[in-house]
Amino acid sequence: MEALKRFSQNVIDTMRSDIKDADGNEVFWAGKIDLEGIVVSLQAGSRGNENSVVVNKNAAKEGNVIIHNHPSGNLSPSEADQNIAYNASDSSLGFYIVDNDVSRVYVVVEPVKPKKIELLNEDETAFFLSCQGPFAKFYGNYEERPA
Questions:
Q1: Burial letters for 25-59: b for 16+ Cβ neighbours within 10 Å, e otherwise?
Q2: From start to end of 16-129, where are the E strands?
């Protein structure tokens, strides 16, 4: 899959720079996604060699998706990657593998998209909890109390 379908351009640029700084070796990131599922920020958590990288669980706790690169360009998950994916899904984390150019991404586990939080209307909530509101009508023993 094309990387721009999962990452902002800024994140792609950051990942390319991190890979370059790691001499092309594997890098582990924890990323945060927006409501559309696009990774909009990330933090490098560890750097490895050309075949592996340590999963930084502390960094993973801060994100919605964990990501690492395969310097070989083969994005098929290894057995170790499958184990990481299993643990990631238990923590509601997505798991992606990218190539070193960060032009392609393989989605091993879909991330759980954050929910949009909408603030309550204070007047509607106050009415709902008032003596004239539906809550009071439903519960016969309801009594309004000062805040």
A1: bbbbbbbbbeeebbbebbbbbbbbeeeebebbeeb
A2: 27-33, 39-47, 65-70, 94-99, 105-109
What distance in Å separates the CA atoms of residue 54 and residue 127, rounded to the nearest whole number?
54
Range of the domain at 8: 3-109
Number of structural domains in the chain: 2
Question: What are 79-122's pLDDT values in tens digits?
Answer: 999 999 998 888 889 999 999 999 999 999 999 877 777 888 88
> Distance (Å, rounded) from C-alpha 33 to C-alpha 97?
16
Mark whether 95 and 49 lie in a shared domain. yes
What pLDDT, in 10s, does the model give residues 3-59? 999 999 999 999 999 999 999 999 999 999 999 999 999 999 999 999 999 998 888
Read off the pTM: 0.78
